[in-house]
Design brief:
37% helix, five-stranded mixed beta barrel, elongated, 21 helices, five-stranded parallel β-sheet, 21% strand, 585 residues, alpha/beta
Length: 585
């Protein structure tokens, strides 16, 4: 059946009447691309009940919410009754001369899941650009229509459902004079707290001035977890009375304001389709594998120059960038490859920032933490349950899978570590060793699996446990010309084709399948026995790290099986790293 309307013109009623055909239409990529993106479109240009798209991370999951799936309405003037649907809307529609028959057999109660979905934490600018969908076809026309509907609303007795400018003012979303860090903004007349501050309400793990947050209503059981990145197609709800209609005597004032904030700040989104995270930069593996050697050489050239001419360090950093957890066992996450780079020339104090700026251009998600003693003692790294308002308060490390975390320890000094500092220290250790993040529920903690590659930059060995310490061996000539080398590396990455290839290379190899051949397994066993004789402290854990390295080295060269020659090459690389460590001591 050919639908009469495009997705951009669907209403809730139209979708419910043509659900099967509409869902088929949403399988068309061209149809999806026409739907406005909430990530990049201001709410002023969107209407209540409009179909939109939002890509974000599940930050919290509330208790299920009860609603009327179907309900019978009686017209008290005529006595006639009708059955209405409560799907994909926030409240049952009932005029002043109508009443809902709650005890009718036709009234069906149901429940829906309620998620808090936020803009993806740490998403870099180039990746944000890929999320941008074109604005509504005629922005000026749309804006004009919104303003006209606002003027008409002044003459109507019934409160309109779309989000217009006068309605946003009516909500008094925030007092601009409120302190940024304060919990409440104040009503100047009553002197009573009206709303929590915007920063407190948005609850992002890391600051994001352009970040968005949605309350997503889900109508079927979905196997998604906290911190997953999802794409949501749904109907937008901007009813200005949403912060009032859920007023409940069972909720504290703070809980009420957190769970039912103004729609002008936190819009509602009624999901009709949810898609797992799929990066636009993941292309067919055969395409990337066929030119992996060439891309790797480009990436190695840039990274080795940034690392003061050290090609060994560049090889380890490439392996780190394409690493991801591929298998979990008790107390072990297979595939994680966190590294600690040390011994860089301290005359270049901004080296950590310079390296991070390069990495931001090639990885989709990242975050830099300046690990000073003050930050260690005062920052909140792990998410905590706030029972006063019944929500999960984000910690800095509540990040989605494959977010690259860079920890800069160059500013860390000796001093007293507080209880909070010790907790943060243990949290980072658990993240690096087990790829797990504890969530603090006050009376107990609950571990959540993560997949966050950690790169530590420090003068000497990191204060946290990191098996792979790489001692830099700077090239004197590169050190001397470093400012010029840095500028040359930036210029090298300005080639859009080269940059796109590198981004696709990293994203694709993170998800590539890999096998160990039987021939190579025998070589590994023989080398393990030999290494135990040479290095008395060489343990099975060291062998595991070496096998992870050889797997990543193979993938970086476009190989999805480990061959004996690549194993030998990886072993040689590891011996060079260990020899540098022994000389350093």
């Amino acid at each position: 059946m050919l639908l009469a309307l495009k997705p951009t013109d669907w209403t809730v009623d139209y979708f419910l009447k043509n659900k099967s055909d509409c869902m088929k239409d949403l399988e068309n990529a061209d149809a999806l691309n026409e739907i406005p993106s909430l990530n990049s479109t201001n709410l002023d240009y969107l209407n209540d009940g409009q179909l939109v798209h939002f890509r974000g991370m599940i930050q919290d999951m509330y208790n299920p919410e009860y609603f009327l799936q179907n309900y019978q309405v009686i017209n008290e003037q005529t006595g006639k009754s009708s059955i209405r649907s409560g799907l994909l809307i926030d409240r049952a529609h009932c005029e002043s001369y109508e009443k809902i028959e709650f005890n009718s057999d036709s009234t069906v109660k149901s429940e829906r899941q309620v998620w808090i979905v936020i803009s993806i934490p740490g998403l870099n600018d180039w990746a944000k650009e890929s999320l941008k969908n074109r604005m509504p076809i005629d922005v000026q026309s749309t804006k004009s229509n919104v303003n006209k509907s606002s003027k008409r609303a002044l003459d109507d007795s019934e409160e309109p459902m779309d989000c217009s400018e006068p309605q946003q003012k009516k909500e008094k979303a925030l007092d601009n004079n409120a302190e940024v860090g304060s919990l409440y903004s104040m009503d100047k007349e009553s002197k009573k707290p009206q709303l929590v501050s915007k920063d407190y309400l948005l609850n992002f793990p890391i600051p994001d001035k352009d970040g968005k947050i949605c309350i997503v209503k889900v109508y079927q059981n979905m196997p998604y977890k906290l911190n997953q990145v999802i794409d949501i197609i749904g109907f937008l709800s901007l009813d200005p009375t949403l912060s009032e209609i859920y007023d409940s005597p069972n909720m504290t004032e703070l809980e009420q304001q957190i769970h039912h904030p103004p729609a002008s700040i936190v819009p509602r989104l009624h999901a009709i389709k949810i898609i797992d995270e799929k990066s636009k930069y993941i292309v067919e593996q055969t395409n990337i594998f066929s030119k992996a050697e060439c891309i790797r050489e480009d990436l190695r050239r840039v990274l080795s120059q940034i690392l003061f001419g050290d090609q060994v360090a560049a090889d380890y950093l490439i392996c780190h960038l394409i690493s991801s957890v591929y298998l979990r066992q008790p107390s072990l996450s297979l595939g994680a490859f966190s590294i600690n780079i040390t011994n860089f020339p301290m005359k270049y104090k901004d080296f950590s920032k310079d390296l991070y700026e390069i990495l931001r251009q090639i990885v989709e998600k990242s975050h830099l933490i300046d690990m000073t003693l003050g930050n260690l003692n005062n920052m909140c790294f792990l998410p905590k349950k706030d029972y006063e308002c019944d929500r999960l308060t984000s910690g800095i490390l509540q990040l989605s899978k494959n977010t690259h975390l860079i920890i800069d320890e160059t500013g860390l000094t000796a001093g007293q570590v507080t209880a909070c500092g010790r907790q943060n220290y243990n949290t980072i250790n658990d993240l690096i060793i087990f790829q797990k993040l504890p969530y603090d529920f006050k009376y107990y903690t609950m571990d959540h699996e993560t997949d966050i590659p950690v790169l530590i930059l420090s003068e000497s060995k990191s204060f946290v446990s990191c098996r792979q310490q790489i001692v830099l061996k700077p090239d004197p000539e590169t050190v001397k010309l470093y400012p010029h080398v840095l500028e040359a590396a930036k210029q090298y990455l300005k080639d859009e084709n080269r940059l796109t290839d590198i981004r696709q290379y990293i994203s694709t190899l993170k998800h590539a399948k890999f096998d160990f051949t039987e021939e190579t397994s025998e070589v590994i066993q023989d080398d393990f026995v030999r290494l135990r004789h040479i290095y008395k402290k060489f343990t099975p854990d060291d062998l595991h790290s070496l096998m992870v390295l050889s797997r990543l080295m193979s993938l970086s060269h476009g190989l999805n099986v480990l061959k004996p020659d690549m194993w030998k090459r990886s072993l040689k690389l590891e011996m060079e790293r260990l020899n540098r460590l022994s000389r350093r001591r």
